[in-house]
């Protein structure tokens, strides 16, 4: 692949303030939230499209000149998804950030991809509507990035993933052609489902330039809760029981005792350093009856403490969980996470996976805090090791990989919500087998025959170096 020539940039017909080759701008686009400095890769040029026409022109020219193009948004990705590992163009989508139309009568909104998740909900407030599947990073991540990774969050247990709320997309293919995929109708049986193919494709198949999203009514009643347990395995079993019993829970998160200690240290808090479940309930009526039902299931597991609240008490109850991403990063001065762990397994295997991780932590003598969206079988973990100690770091990386492979072996997936990016490519064959990966590669080759869109992501390398 070649780097963008001055002729290519001239052919794009962009204003001077729509592209940059300065070191500062290239550096800003060389990494995402979890990229270690040694793993950053700068693009040759950053381009800020302002319309579908701009995106189409960039992709058509890039295909003609064989230049890689990597879509880039808020860079909150955790798998190097937006890092332009082969250089070329970083296509920064953040200037395309308008709300185009709200249709309350259909419960739909049309947005450009650079809009932040929280901005969607702000625009919907006066209609009593909201977009429910936002990830925890909903106020710092764009809807384009969320679509591209099929993000999900703490409310997935009730509302599903971002992809479940996408109705129609306008996308630009590698050759610059503009295609509408999906429909604004509630159901369809029409042809191949290209919309769901684009969702989760991490900018490797097309660039999203407009999205029609489905919406829900804001619930009249909300409550939150926090439950302290004696062991994480008991907490995980209780969480699985709550979901299996059909409690209408909107969020159900767990943290282990090490994660609780990290939250305390970060917040200067006084929570018990014990495993905890965090719950949220949404309803239009009968929320207290639902909580009573939940309590009957919790009682089977002898919790050490159970608290429920509404209004401002909700925020207080959830504070430790909310701050955990920063708290884990801040805890050790001499140890780093080898990579952000993000696994999902069938609910019945959740307690087994947690037990497996904790046993491995003892056996390998490495701290591994666990937390996550237990209600949907998603677990986050970090294997902490000292990067300056070669042997310990290698042990940490190997431990991380062993855990991911065990989750896949349990019938789960190597990534519940962060996507494959470059970090999880090595597990694609474990999870999908050779024929599965071959089928994915055939789709990639059909839509992007020159391989210009976000190369070096999702699919593992093949012998010819692609
Ligand atoms: C504190 C924190 C908490 C987080 N919590 C969650 C969570 O609860 N759930 C979750 O799922 N994730 C979570 N994440 C990860 C991250 O926020 C998501 O992956 C998010 O969807 C990325 O959005 P972004 O705008 O930052 O995209 P980027 O990181 O900039 O890009 C992500 C991917 O999207 C592609 N892309 C971006 N825009 C487009 C477009 N218009 N068309 C095509 N491709 C595009 C990029 O090429 C890249 O592959 C968290 C991250 C942080 C830092």
At a glance:
The chain has 4 domains: 6-94, Uridine Diphospho-n-acetylenolpyruvylglucosamine Reductase, domain 2 (2-Layer Sandwich); 97-217, Uridine Diphospho-n-acetylenolpyruvylglucosamine Reductase, domain 3 (2-Layer Sandwich), CATH 3.30.465.10; 219-327, Alpha-Beta Plaits, CATH 3.30.70.2190; 332-420, 2-Layer Sandwich (Alpha-Beta Plaits), CATH 3.30.70.2740. Helices cover 35% and strands 19% of the residues. It has helices at 6-11, 23-28, 52-65, 117-124, 143-149, 156-159, 194-198, 232-244, 257-267, 287-299, 312-322, 324-331, 350-364, 390-409, 428-447, and strands at 19-20, 45-47, 69-72, 89-92, 99-103, 108-111, 129-130, 166-172, 178-182, 207-214, 216-217, 221-228, 251-255, 276-283, 305-309, 336-337, 341-344, 370-372, 378-381, 384-385.
Q: Can you put this structure into words, describing what you see?
A:
Helix content is 35%, strand content 19%. It has 15 helices and 20 strands. A seven-stranded antiparallel beta sheet has the order 15-12-14-13-18-19-17, with helices on both faces. It has a five-stranded antiparallel beta sheet with strand order 5-6-10-8-9. It has a four-stranded mixed beta sheet with strand order 1-2-4-3, covered by helices on one side. Strand 18 and strand 19 form a beta hairpin. The N and C termini lie close together (10 Å). 48% of the residues are buried. The protein binds flavin-adenine dinucleotide. Flavin-adenine dinucleotide binds next to strand 3, helix 5 and strand 10.
